[in-house]
Write a structure and sequence with these properties.
6-stranded parallel beta sheet, Rossmann fold, 340 residues, 38% helix, 14 helices, alpha/beta
Length: 340
């Protein structure tokens, strides 16, 4: 059996597709699984397991080779986790006898819907993203047992992370702050990040490490945080590739971040984390299989009840006290479980 999987969204979406991939591999151990991903997710590919072949959609002339490869492969099944024009074209080119997608594509584009044969009655807006991806396996009658995202980080990623820690003299247990995001509306105020850094420098025996992507906007945000903080902090922002960042996160005592890709890296490596949500809904994206405290809005306590529909909330509503309290709670839990 040959199965084509189309996941052309971002890094977090790909990580949250790994439970569905694992379920397929468990149900069909002899199947040949081909995964197509976006160029934005390419750096993550060495950590993606349970597939036999991975193709990259680059949105340029090199995609001609991708389309040719898909068209000549003769797949039995195609599952489209993406539901856009490009993935519909790939589904149609696959000539798979069963091409699966959410029924929502019929409501969004009659033209696009002609690319598919099976329409599963699920909507992403009603479900956690992992559950949505697993539900699309229904026509194949695949087992849904695995529900936790998973990454197989290569050894070189751990070696690079260790080398960075040695180079920057991070010798104590460490906490990672990842304040950056590609979306400006997800950013928390630099002064509040600085208050967190200053509080824990005086009250905690951990090193603090700043990480972020290399983009100009994220680097500007990091510079503003450092400018306001009174205490020293190790700045590794823009100095890691994606897999090295994942390895750093896996060794951290705690990650504190906004809703961004590191949330899912921590979820896949079982690292405790405090996550600041604003305009995005944690119902769809929160980690469920690892220790995570969700903060959103004006409440001083973590969010424990989630709804598929909620209004957008400004990040500015999250208080410094709420973040510090959540961090204290998780750090205390970690110390309590450490062997004496």
């Amino acid at each position: 059996m040959k199965i084509l999987l189309l996941q052309l969204k971002r890094i977090g979406d790909l990580i949250l597709t790994t439970p569905a991939i694992a379920a397929l591999r468990q149900s069909f151990p002899q199947a040949q699984l081909t995964l197509v991903v976006s160029q934005e997710s390419a750096d993550l590919l060495p950590a993606i397991s349970n597939v036999d072949r991975i193709l990259i959609a680059r949105r340029n002339l090199r995609d001609l080779a991708l389309f040719s490869s898909v068209a000549t492969r003769r797949f039995d099944y195609c599952i489209d986790f993406t539901r856009n024009d490009r993935s519909a074209s790939l589904a149609l080119l696959s000539r798979a006898r069963r091409r699966v997608v959410s029924y929502r594509v019929r409501e969004q584009s009659k033209t696009r819907s002609h690319a598919y044969t099976d329409f599963v009655r699920v909507r992403m807006r009603d479900m956690h993203t992992i559950d949505y991806n697993l539900a699309l396996l229904e026509p194949l009658r695949a087992s849904h047992a695995p529900t936790a995202p998973h990454l197989d980080l290569p050894q070189i990623a751990y070696e690079k992370a260790d080398a960075l820690r040695r180079s920057w003299k991070v010798v104590r247990p460490y906490i990672i702050l990842h304040p950056g995001s590609a979306r400006q509306e997800k950013l928390w105020e630099p002064g509040r990040w600085a208050e967190v850094i200053d509080y824990f420098d005086q009250n905690n025996g951990c090193d603090f490490v700043l990480t972020s992507g290399p983009s100009r906007d994220e680097q500007t945000h990091i510079a503003a945080i450092k400018n306001k903080a009174q205490q020293r902090i190790t700045d590794l922002s823009g100095k890691t590739d994606l897999l090295t960042l994942a390895a750093l996160i896996s060794g951290a005592r705690l990650l504190v971040t906004v809703d961004s890709a590191p949330v899912h890296l921590a979820g896949a490596t079982c690292t405790p984390q405090v996550i600041l949500f604003g305009p995005t809904n944690p119902f769809h994206w929160r980690p469920r299989e690892s220790q995570a405290v969700i903060l959103q809005g004006k409440s001083a306590t973590p969010v424990t009840e989630f709804s598929p529909v909620q209004p957008r909330v400004p990040m500015s509503q999250i208080s410094t006290e709420a973040v510090i309290g959540a961090m204290d709670s998780l750090l205390a839990t970690h110390l309590a479980t450490e062997p004496s």
